[in-house]
């Protein structure tokens, strides 16, 4: 059992928390919908920065379930939508990633892919520049006319190299464009790659979470 989880039936994992959010703000937010017995909000001992997640302990399993139903993907703090779920022993291990947006990965946006390119080809191409955290995702924009992809690097140094190396290069007869992806549910069109993103990514790698 994870030491941060006293009782998995009453403890909630809250992820995707902006480092500027304080423990008091988390308490004030959650106590509005349920009695709270304890909050654990880990902070890095060296950087003295919060690590992007917290454990909120409710009084009963019913309270915990109510909070999850009410607050998961519905509440934003500093333009980050909180991810709220039941805590368990895998809550701080990316081997059971759940929502990938909860992890401090380097997410790269690739535009203008040829129709013949598949995820395996993308994985082979980008993994030559650095380790990937998961298989690339291919999707369409502009009424299914523009083929794009998301590439998830484990660290920003390799993502930076990929953008510098492959942006505006020909891949299967099409010139692709690379940039950092926009963050999920951001109200300010913020992209991955900020100084805070890079610090959180570095700490996660130092702790072997990625």
UniProtKB/TrEMBL annotation:
Nucleus keyword on record:
yes
Q: Which residues form the RRM domain?
A: 10-89, 106-183
| Entries under Gene3D superfamilies matching the protein | 3.30.70.330
GO terms, biological process: mRNA splicing, via spliceosome; positive regulation of mRNA splicing, via spliceosome
An MF annotation (GO) of this entry:
RNA binding
Q: Which UniProt keywords apply?
A: Nucleus, Repeat, RNA-binding
Q: What is this protein called?
A: BN860_13652g1_1
Give the organism the record lists.
Answer: Zygosaccharomyces bailii (strain CLIB 213 / ATCC 58445 / CBS 680 / BCRC 21525 / NBRC 1098 / NCYC 1416 / NRRL Y-2227)
